[in-house]
Prior knowledge:
With 367 residues, the chain is mainly β. It has four helices and 20 strands. The protein folds into four domains: 2-112, Immunoglobulins (Immunoglobulin-like); 165-209; 227-273, no CATH class; 279-364, no CATH class.
Amino acid sequence: MKLTVNGSAIRCLQRTIVTTGMAGAPVDFAFDEAWDAISGKTAVFRCGDVERQMVLDENGGAVIPAEVLHTPGRTLYIGVYGATGSGATWPAPTPFCDCGMVLLGAEVAEEAADITPTLAQQVLLAAETAQAIAQSVRDDADSGVFDGEDGADGADGEDGHGLIVMGLYATLAALQAAHPTAAVGDAYAVGTTVSNAIYVWDGSGWVNLGSLAGPQGPAGPQGPNVINAATATTFSGVLVGSGGSVTAQAVDSAPASGSAALVTSGGVAAALAGKQPVVQLGDVVFGTTWSESSGVYSQTVTVTGATVTANSRVDLQLFAAQRLVMQGWGVTALWVENNSGTLTAYALGAQPQEGGTIQCTVTEVTA
Protein backbone atom coordinates (compact mmCIF):
# COMPACT_ATOMS: atom_id res chain seq x y z
CA MET A 1 0.00 0.00 0.00
CA LYS A 2 1.52 3.36 -1.04
CA LEU A 3 0.14 6.78 -0.05
CA THR A 4 1.35 10.32 -0.83
CA VAL A 5 0.88 13.24 1.59
CA ASN A 6 1.01 16.86 0.34
CA GLY A 7 0.37 19.29 3.19
CA SER A 8 -2.98 18.17 4.62
CA ALA A 9 -3.99 16.24 1.50
CA ILE A 10 -3.54 12.43 1.38
CA ARG A 11 -4.02 10.16 -1.62
CA CYS A 12 -3.67 6.39 -2.15
CA LEU A 13 -1.35 5.84 -5.13
CA GLN A 14 -1.23 2.03 -4.95
CA ARG A 15 -3.83 -0.13 -3.22
CA THR A 16 -3.06 -3.59 -1.86
CA ILE A 17 -5.73 -6.26 -1.42
CA VAL A 18 -6.26 -6.73 2.32
CA THR A 19 -8.08 -9.66 3.93
CA THR A 20 -9.09 -10.80 7.37
CA GLY A 21 -6.32 -12.79 9.03
CA MET A 22 -3.60 -10.72 7.29
CA ALA A 23 -0.72 -9.62 9.55
CA GLY A 24 2.29 -7.44 8.77
CA ALA A 25 0.89 -5.90 5.55
CA PRO A 26 3.25 -2.97 4.75
CA VAL A 27 2.14 0.59 4.01
CA ASP A 28 4.52 3.33 2.83
CA PHE A 29 3.99 7.11 3.00
CA ALA A 30 5.70 9.70 0.74
CA PHE A 31 5.64 13.19 2.31
CA ASP A 32 6.21 16.56 0.63
CA GLU A 33 8.74 19.11 1.94
CA ALA A 34 6.13 20.69 4.25
CA TRP A 35 6.57 17.62 6.48
CA ASP A 36 10.41 17.77 6.66
CA ALA A 37 10.35 19.45 10.10
CA ILE A 38 7.58 17.23 11.47
CA SER A 39 8.52 14.59 14.05
CA GLY A 40 6.55 11.67 15.45
CA LYS A 41 4.72 10.98 12.18
CA THR A 42 1.92 8.58 13.14
CA ALA A 43 -0.50 6.66 10.93
CA VAL A 44 -4.12 6.13 12.02
CA PHE A 45 -5.93 3.01 10.74
CA ARG A 46 -9.74 2.74 11.02
CA CYS A 47 -12.12 0.01 9.91
CA GLY A 48 -15.67 0.10 11.24
CA ASP A 49 -15.50 0.91 14.97
CA VAL A 50 -11.91 -0.37 15.34
CA GLU A 51 -9.07 2.19 15.26
CA ARG A 52 -5.32 1.69 15.84
CA GLN A 53 -2.27 3.97 15.53
CA MET A 54 1.27 3.13 14.39
CA VAL A 55 4.39 5.33 14.65
CA LEU A 56 6.09 5.48 11.22
CA ASP A 57 9.72 4.43 10.86
CA GLU A 58 12.43 6.76 9.53
CA ASN A 59 11.54 5.84 5.95
CA GLY A 60 7.82 6.60 6.40
CA GLY A 61 6.77 2.96 6.66
CA ALA A 62 4.50 0.95 8.96
CA VAL A 63 2.37 -2.20 8.92
CA ILE A 64 -1.42 -2.39 8.91
CA PRO A 65 -2.57 -3.55 12.39
CA ALA A 66 -4.23 -6.96 12.23
CA GLU A 67 -7.07 -5.74 14.49
CA VAL A 68 -8.50 -3.38 11.84
CA LEU A 69 -8.61 -6.28 9.35
CA HIS A 70 -10.82 -8.37 11.61
CA THR A 71 -14.22 -7.81 9.94
CA PRO A 72 -14.77 -8.46 6.21
CA GLY A 73 -16.91 -6.11 4.11
CA ARG A 74 -15.76 -2.97 5.97
CA THR A 75 -13.77 -0.16 4.30
CA LEU A 76 -10.20 0.46 5.50
CA TYR A 77 -9.42 4.15 6.07
CA ILE A 78 -5.89 5.53 6.67
CA GLY A 79 -4.79 9.00 7.83
CA VAL A 80 -1.60 10.51 9.29
CA TYR A 81 -0.55 13.28 11.68
CA GLY A 82 2.66 14.65 13.22
CA ALA A 83 3.95 17.30 15.60
CA THR A 84 6.47 20.16 15.51
CA GLY A 85 9.02 20.79 18.25
CA SER A 86 6.47 22.93 20.10
CA GLY A 87 3.97 20.07 20.15
CA ALA A 88 1.55 21.68 17.72
CA THR A 89 0.34 19.55 14.82
CA TRP A 90 1.34 21.17 11.55
CA PRO A 91 0.52 20.47 8.84
CA ALA A 92 -2.93 19.75 10.22
CA PRO A 93 -3.85 16.03 10.50
CA THR A 94 -4.92 14.69 7.12
CA PRO A 95 -8.46 13.44 6.48
CA PHE A 96 -8.93 9.70 6.18
CA CYS A 97 -8.16 8.14 2.79
CA ASP A 98 -10.31 5.31 1.40
CA CYS A 99 -7.91 2.36 0.92
CA GLY A 100 -10.39 -0.32 -0.18
CA MET A 101 -12.61 -2.97 1.37
CA VAL A 102 -11.38 -5.74 3.70
CA LEU A 103 -12.06 -9.07 1.99
CA LEU A 104 -12.83 -12.37 3.70
CA GLY A 105 -9.66 -14.36 4.30
CA ALA A 106 -8.42 -16.97 6.75
CA GLU A 107 -10.28 -17.32 10.05
CA VAL A 108 -8.72 -15.48 13.01
CA ALA A 109 -9.01 -16.72 16.60
CA GLU A 110 -10.55 -14.29 19.07
CA GLU A 111 -7.47 -14.32 21.31
CA ALA A 112 -5.41 -12.91 18.39
CA ALA A 113 -7.67 -9.87 17.93
CA ASP A 114 -5.53 -7.31 19.85
CA ILE A 115 -1.86 -7.72 19.00
CA THR A 116 -0.76 -4.21 17.99
CA PRO A 117 1.13 -2.39 20.82
CA THR A 118 -0.12 0.99 21.98
CA LEU A 119 1.68 4.19 20.97
CA ALA A 120 3.41 4.38 24.35
CA GLN A 121 4.54 0.74 24.02
CA GLN A 122 5.81 1.41 20.49
CA VAL A 123 7.89 4.42 21.61
CA LEU A 124 9.23 2.54 24.66
CA LEU A 125 10.13 -0.51 22.56
CA ALA A 126 11.97 1.65 20.01
CA ALA A 127 13.95 3.37 22.78
CA GLU A 128 14.84 0.07 24.46
CA THR A 129 15.90 -1.46 21.15
CA ALA A 130 18.12 1.52 20.28
CA GLN A 131 19.69 1.47 23.76
CA ALA A 132 20.38 -2.27 23.52
CA ILE A 133 22.00 -1.92 20.09
CA ALA A 134 24.15 0.99 21.27
CA GLN A 135 25.28 -0.93 24.38
CA SER A 136 26.07 -4.04 22.33
CA VAL A 137 28.24 -2.03 19.91
CA ARG A 138 30.00 -0.32 22.83
CA ASP A 139 30.70 -3.67 24.54
CA ASP A 140 32.09 -5.14 21.31
CA ALA A 141 34.28 -2.08 20.77
CA ASP A 142 35.62 -2.23 24.36
CA SER A 143 36.41 -5.93 24.01
CA GLY A 144 38.35 -5.42 20.76
CA VAL A 145 35.91 -7.23 18.47
CA PHE A 146 36.41 -4.58 15.80
CA ASP A 147 40.22 -4.53 16.10
CA GLY A 148 41.87 -6.23 13.15
CA GLU A 149 45.29 -6.61 11.64
CA ASP A 150 46.61 -3.94 9.34
CA GLY A 151 45.69 -4.76 5.79
CA ALA A 152 48.04 -4.77 2.85
CA ASP A 153 48.14 -1.76 0.56
CA GLY A 154 45.67 -2.18 -2.25
CA ALA A 155 46.17 -1.40 -5.90
CA ASP A 156 45.38 2.04 -7.20
CA GLY A 157 41.74 2.34 -8.22
CA GLU A 158 40.41 3.69 -11.48
CA ASP A 159 39.83 7.38 -11.88
CA GLY A 160 36.43 8.39 -10.51
CA HIS A 161 33.73 10.08 -12.51
CA GLY A 162 32.87 13.72 -11.98
CA LEU A 163 29.53 14.79 -10.54
CA ILE A 164 26.95 15.13 -13.33
CA VAL A 165 23.80 17.12 -12.52
CA MET A 166 21.04 15.40 -14.51
CA GLY A 167 18.30 18.03 -14.24
CA LEU A 168 16.64 20.86 -12.28
CA TYR A 169 13.43 20.72 -10.16
CA ALA A 170 11.76 23.64 -8.40
CA THR A 171 11.22 21.76 -5.10
CA LEU A 172 12.36 18.59 -3.34
CA ALA A 173 8.78 17.31 -3.55
CA ALA A 174 8.85 17.71 -7.34
CA LEU A 175 12.12 15.73 -7.52
CA GLN A 176 10.75 12.97 -5.26
CA ALA A 177 7.57 12.76 -7.31
CA ALA A 178 9.49 12.46 -10.60
CA HIS A 179 12.16 10.09 -9.20
CA PRO A 180 10.95 8.09 -6.17
CA THR A 181 14.11 5.97 -6.62
CA ALA A 182 17.27 6.30 -8.69
CA ALA A 183 20.70 4.82 -9.28
CA VAL A 184 23.26 5.44 -6.52
CA GLY A 185 25.16 8.64 -7.36
CA ASP A 186 22.42 10.23 -9.54
CA ALA A 187 22.36 13.98 -8.89
CA TYR A 188 19.72 16.67 -9.49
CA ALA A 189 19.54 20.39 -8.67
CA VAL A 190 16.59 21.71 -6.62
CA GLY A 191 15.72 25.40 -6.71
CA THR A 192 16.29 27.89 -9.54
CA THR A 193 19.04 28.27 -12.12
CA VAL A 194 20.46 31.08 -9.97
CA SER A 195 20.10 29.54 -6.48
CA ASN A 196 19.87 25.78 -5.96
CA ALA A 197 21.11 22.81 -3.92
CA ILE A 198 22.37 19.47 -5.24
CA TYR A 199 20.59 16.26 -4.15
CA VAL A 200 22.26 12.84 -4.65
CA TRP A 201 20.56 9.41 -4.34
CA ASP A 202 22.47 7.34 -1.73
CA GLY A 203 20.54 4.12 -2.23
CA SER A 204 17.67 4.87 0.14
CA GLY A 205 16.86 8.58 -0.22
CA TRP A 206 17.84 11.97 -1.67
CA VAL A 207 20.74 13.58 0.27
CA ASN A 208 21.30 17.36 0.19
CA LEU A 209 24.94 18.17 -0.67
CA GLY A 210 24.34 21.91 -0.56
CA SER A 211 25.08 24.45 -3.30
CA LEU A 212 27.97 24.03 -5.74
CA ALA A 213 28.37 27.82 -6.08
CA GLY A 214 31.02 29.53 -3.98
CA PRO A 215 30.70 32.95 -2.30
CA GLN A 216 30.65 36.07 -4.45
CA GLY A 217 34.13 37.50 -5.00
CA PRO A 218 35.18 41.11 -4.39
CA ALA A 219 34.50 43.79 -7.03
CA GLY A 220 37.33 44.31 -9.51
CA PRO A 221 39.04 47.62 -10.28
CA GLN A 222 37.28 50.14 -12.51
CA GLY A 223 38.24 49.83 -16.15
CA PRO A 224 39.62 52.57 -18.44
CA ASN A 225 37.65 55.05 -20.55
CA VAL A 226 35.03 55.78 -17.87
CA ILE A 227 32.08 57.86 -19.09
CA ASN A 228 31.36 60.56 -16.50
CA ALA A 229 31.13 64.33 -16.12
CA ALA A 230 34.79 64.82 -15.08
CA THR A 231 36.02 65.62 -18.59
CA ALA A 232 32.76 66.48 -20.30
CA THR A 233 33.00 67.35 -23.98
CA THR A 234 30.73 67.60 -26.98
CA PHE A 235 30.97 65.21 -29.89
CA SER A 236 29.25 64.13 -33.07
CA GLY A 237 28.69 60.65 -34.41
CA VAL A 238 28.71 57.50 -32.33
CA LEU A 239 30.80 57.94 -29.13
CA VAL A 240 33.23 60.38 -30.68
CA GLY A 241 34.84 62.78 -28.24
CA SER A 242 38.06 63.79 -26.56
CA GLY A 243 39.59 63.00 -23.20
CA GLY A 244 38.56 60.04 -21.04
CA SER A 245 34.78 60.48 -21.01
CA VAL A 246 31.69 61.79 -22.79
CA THR A 247 28.33 62.91 -21.44
CA ALA A 248 26.31 63.47 -24.62
CA GLN A 249 24.28 60.77 -26.36
CA ALA A 250 25.37 58.91 -29.45
CA VAL A 251 23.15 59.49 -32.54
CA ASP A 252 20.27 61.14 -30.61
CA SER A 253 20.33 64.89 -30.24
CA ALA A 254 19.09 65.08 -26.62
CA PRO A 255 22.08 65.11 -24.17
CA ALA A 256 22.34 62.87 -21.12
CA SER A 257 23.74 64.37 -17.94
CA GLY A 258 25.98 62.79 -15.31
CA SER A 259 25.60 59.01 -15.12
CA ALA A 260 22.32 58.80 -17.09
CA ALA A 261 21.98 56.09 -19.77
CA LEU A 262 23.22 57.08 -23.24
CA VAL A 263 19.86 56.45 -24.98
CA THR A 264 17.08 58.02 -22.89
CA SER A 265 15.11 60.10 -25.41
CA GLY A 266 14.86 61.01 -29.06
CA GLY A 267 14.38 58.83 -32.12
CA VAL A 268 16.44 55.82 -30.95
CA ALA A 269 14.77 55.76 -27.53
CA ALA A 270 11.31 56.04 -29.11
CA ALA A 271 12.08 53.14 -31.47
CA LEU A 272 13.26 50.92 -28.63
CA ALA A 273 10.54 51.83 -26.12
CA GLY A 274 8.22 48.96 -25.28
CA LYS A 275 9.88 46.48 -27.66
CA GLN A 276 11.49 44.38 -24.98
CA PRO A 277 8.98 42.14 -23.13
CA VAL A 278 8.89 42.50 -19.34
CA VAL A 279 8.55 39.15 -17.55
CA GLN A 280 7.80 38.88 -13.81
CA LEU A 281 7.46 35.91 -11.47
CA GLY A 282 4.51 35.89 -9.06
CA ASP A 283 1.79 33.75 -7.46
CA VAL A 284 -1.89 33.45 -8.46
CA VAL A 285 -4.11 33.45 -5.34
CA PHE A 286 -7.12 31.08 -5.61
CA GLY A 287 -10.20 31.12 -3.39
CA THR A 288 -12.49 28.20 -2.54
CA THR A 289 -15.65 29.46 -4.31
CA TRP A 290 -16.14 28.69 -8.01
CA SER A 291 -19.01 29.48 -10.39
CA GLU A 292 -20.14 26.87 -12.92
CA SER A 293 -21.59 27.42 -16.41
CA SER A 294 -21.93 24.68 -19.07
CA GLY A 295 -19.28 22.55 -17.38
CA VAL A 296 -16.76 25.42 -17.07
CA TYR A 297 -15.80 26.55 -13.54
CA SER A 298 -14.51 30.10 -12.97
CA GLN A 299 -13.54 32.59 -10.27
CA THR A 300 -11.86 36.01 -10.11
CA VAL A 301 -8.25 35.77 -8.88
CA THR A 302 -5.38 38.09 -7.98
CA VAL A 303 -1.60 37.97 -8.37
CA THR A 304 0.94 38.67 -5.62
CA GLY A 305 4.62 39.42 -6.15
CA ALA A 306 4.10 40.93 -9.64
CA THR A 307 2.34 43.90 -11.23
CA VAL A 308 -0.55 43.07 -13.58
CA THR A 309 -1.87 45.56 -16.17
CA ALA A 310 -4.50 45.35 -18.88
CA ASN A 311 -1.75 44.11 -21.25
CA SER A 312 -0.42 41.35 -18.97
CA ARG A 313 -0.49 37.67 -19.91
CA VAL A 314 -0.59 35.36 -16.88
CA ASP A 315 0.72 31.79 -17.35
CA LEU A 316 0.40 29.21 -14.53
CA GLN A 317 3.51 27.18 -13.57
CA LEU A 318 2.23 24.03 -11.80
CA PHE A 319 4.75 21.77 -10.09
CA ALA A 320 4.54 18.00 -10.58
CA ALA A 321 2.98 17.49 -7.12
CA GLN A 322 0.32 20.13 -7.85
CA ARG A 323 -0.56 18.43 -11.16
CA LEU A 324 -1.05 15.11 -9.33
CA VAL A 325 -3.41 16.78 -6.83
CA MET A 326 -5.41 18.42 -9.68
CA GLN A 327 -5.73 15.06 -11.46
CA GLY A 328 -6.97 13.50 -8.23
CA TRP A 329 -9.71 16.15 -8.06
CA GLY A 330 -10.71 15.49 -11.69
CA VAL A 331 -9.42 18.86 -13.02
CA THR A 332 -8.38 18.35 -16.68
CA ALA A 333 -7.40 21.95 -17.50
CA LEU A 334 -6.63 25.12 -15.48
CA TRP A 335 -5.74 28.57 -16.88
CA VAL A 336 -6.03 32.34 -16.29
CA GLU A 337 -7.39 35.01 -18.68
CA ASN A 338 -6.92 38.80 -18.44
CA ASN A 339 -9.88 41.02 -19.30
CA SER A 340 -8.66 44.65 -19.16
CA GLY A 341 -6.80 44.05 -15.91
CA THR A 342 -9.38 41.71 -14.31
CA LEU A 343 -7.99 38.18 -13.95
CA THR A 344 -10.36 35.18 -14.19
CA ALA A 345 -9.29 31.55 -13.57
CA TYR A 346 -11.05 28.77 -15.49
CA ALA A 347 -11.14 25.01 -14.79
CA LEU A 348 -12.48 22.09 -16.84
CA GLY A 349 -13.56 18.65 -15.68
CA ALA A 350 -14.07 19.68 -12.04
CA GLN A 351 -13.33 22.58 -9.72
CA PRO A 352 -10.26 22.55 -7.43
CA GLN A 353 -11.34 21.49 -3.96
CA GLU A 354 -9.00 23.81 -2.03
CA GLY A 355 -7.77 27.38 -2.28
CA GLY A 356 -4.12 28.42 -2.26
CA THR A 357 -1.45 29.79 -4.59
CA ILE A 358 0.15 28.59 -7.82
CA GLN A 359 3.34 30.10 -9.25
CA CYS A 360 2.92 32.10 -12.46
CA THR A 361 4.80 34.27 -14.96
CA VAL A 362 3.41 37.69 -15.86
CA THR A 363 4.45 38.93 -19.34
CA GLU A 364 3.67 42.40 -20.67
CA VAL A 365 2.31 42.10 -24.21
CA THR A 366 2.34 45.16 -26.53
CA ALA A 367 1.09 45.61 -30.08
